[in-house]
Write a structure and sequence with these properties.
The complex is a heterodimer of chains A (282) and B (265). With 282 residues, chain A is α/β, with parallel strands linked by helices. Chain A contains eleven helices and ten strands. The chains are: A alpha/beta (282), B mainly alpha (265).
Chain lengths: 282, 265
């Protein structure tokens, strides 16, 4: 039965105590990062445990995508700062890095499905290139994963023929086809209507339950973050403001955290003279 | 003073960017060669099916237009040769100029320019769109090397197919010229072809083949370099596509001149 089709009230969530007794699968240690002279990450540290769903939440420009790109190894390596599955990705040799990448799955914000391949071929791609299985086994595995994300029967469609929600689900199917230990989801609910978005949240919870994977979700969708996150890391202008359970985040005294979760715009005091100087270009 | 400084600053930046781009191109070439030879040992071979698909796209699909151009070039050369040599009453020697210029110059050059416009732009546009849609990032995070998966098959296809097109263009051009010259000079086609084969040496044909392979490599590298460096969405795709075609044609014409000079001195 498709995981996405199951009733949401049966979804299991581990307690924080349970999670903290499990091994750490992601460790970020005092990470700083700049694009030229503009610093975007300041002393970022976090840990994700096995089987945990960690939500990284923040507004636009908060540095969450940069942090995600560091975690999945798409940024230049920084030594001794990031460990995935116990391995320091800053010091890995290329072949070891390739091996590690087979243990992680990433679903990008806009799916990043290959437009020249149909959905089934997209899902089969990692198997074809990395697992060296026969065609029949690959077909079965791809169908299985498409069934998991409630996409069975859509394998022959091209990405251009899919709705936004279907693209996200197909992308998740491709991310989990190698049975990874870690899955990263970039803005899974962006651009989706609330019903599809909620179904996708349920799917993420089901995936964790069924496969025991650790999931890192980058989002600015507050509702989704509270629904799926075991812990939520709030990033603001490159600083981690909080990394707590959803119920703790709700009562966090930090004004910026409250602004973010209650969708309040920030009140900025403007000095009139400074404002005029800025307009004049001084 | 400030304007002069800005001028030199701009020149310096452009030069540095040029070196950066060609360094990137050289690293792409080196990485592609490495994957072709060692990929199999790491169970990550450059796929023959991908390479074959690219060969079909860059070579076979371009056959009708390239052969039409080749025939036109042959006819044009025959017309001009008969006219210019006719001034000295030497029309009977037209086959020499036609045979040598077609095999050594026109076939590689015209096929190179045609494929630069047709496939160089397609490579740049495809790579740029894939980069913008994060498809290249997706390959990387899956542990699939983008150079092995995307770049190496394209380079192999161009290096193999451009000489094939040039060889075929030799036949079509000389055939078309033979038709025109034989009709104009009341000479048999068989006799024209015999004379042409007498004057052509293997070196002349090899010269064209090697040059076409080099042009294929240039077209591929320039397309990939531009496609991979895209910024700025759909507008960026258009910009790098145009840039790839202009750069590829310029590189082909300039390198053709250099190779021509070196091979005759």
């Amino acid at each position: 039965m498709a995981l996405a089709a199951q009733e949401p009230e049966t979804i299991w969530k581990p307690t924080i105590e349970e999670l903290e007794n499990r091994p750490v699968v992601i460790e970020v240690d005092h990470l700083d990062w700049s694009f030229g002279s503009r610093q975007v990450l300041f002393d970022v540290s976090m840990k994700v445990h096995e089987g945990e769903i960690m939500v990284i939440m923040g507004g636009s420009g908060s540095g969450k995508t940069t942090l995600l790109r560091h975690l999945v190894g798409l940024m230049p390596p920084v030594g001794d700062k990031i460990k995935l599955l116990g391995q320091d990705i800053g010091h890995l040799k290329p072949m070891k890095k390739l091996e590690l990448r087979r243990k992680i799955g990433v679903a990008f914000q806009f799916g990043a499905l290959f437009s020249s391949m149909n959905v089934a071929e997209n899902v089969k791609l990692p198997l074809r290139e990395l697992a060296h299985l026969d065609e029949k086994t690959m077909d079965i595995m791809a169908r299985l994963k498409l069934e998991v994300v409630n996409m069975s029967g859509f394998g022959n469609l091209m990405p251009a023929e899919l709705s936004g929600g279907m693209v996200k689900r197909a992308s998740i199917a491709r991310a989990i086809v190698m049975d990874p230990k870690l899955v990263f989801l970039d803005e899974p609910s962006s651009g989706l209507d609330p019903i599809v978005s909620s179904a996708l949240d349920d799917l993420i919870l089901r995936l964790r339950e069924a496969m025991g994977i650790s999931v890192v979700v980058v989002t600015h969708d507050v509702e989704s973050a509270f629904k799926i996150g075991d812990r939520i890391t709030v990033l603001d202008r490159g600083h981690i403001l909080a990394c707590e359970r959803p119920d703790q985040i709700r009562v966090n005294p930090n004004e910026r955290v409250q602004n973010l979760i209650n969708r309040r715009s920030e009140h900025v005091e403007v000095d009139p003279e400074e404002y005029l100087r800025r307009l004049a270009g001084d | 003073m400030a304007a002069v400084l800005r001028f030199f600053d701009a020149i310096g930046r452009r030069t540095a960017r040029g070196f950066d781009e060609w360094g990137f191109g050289a690293s792409l070439l080196a990485e592609s060669i490495v994957w072709v030879f060692i990929g199999r040992f790491y169970r990550q071979p450059v796929r023959f099916t991908h390479t074959f698909a690219e060969m079909m796209r860059f070579g076979i699909a371009a056959l009708p237009i390239s052969m039409l151009l080749a025939a036109t070039i042959g006819l044009m050369l025959a017309i001009q040769s008969l006219y210019s040599l006719g001034l000295f009453g030497a029309q009977n020697f037209a086959y020499i100029g036609i045979a040598l210029s077609v095999t050594r110059e026109f076939s590689p050059l015209i096929m190179g320019i045609l494929i630069a416009g047709r496939s160089g732009s397609a490579i740049a546009a495809r790579l740029a769109t894939m980069t913008i849609n994060q498809e290249v990032d997706a390959l990387q995070v899956m542990g699939i090397n983008p150079v092995r998966f995307l770049v190496a098959p394209m380079l192999i296809a161009l290096v193999v197919m451009l000489p094939c097109l040039a060889m075929l263009a030799n036949l079509i051009s000389i055939g078309a010229a033979a038709l025109y010259v034989s009709a104009s000079l009341d000479k048999s086609i068989g006799s024209y072809i015999y004379d042409t084969l007498q004057i052509l040496k293997a070196d002349d044909v090899w010269h064209g083949i090697i040059k076409s392979s080099f042009f294929g490599l240039l077209i591929g590298l320039i397309g990939v370099m531009n496609g991979a460096s895209v910024t700025g969405g759909a507008e960026g795709v258009g910009r790098v596509t145009t840039r790839a075609v202009v750069q590829a044609i310029t590189a082909i014409v300039v390198s053709d001149m250099v190779i021509g000079y070196l091979s005759t001195h």
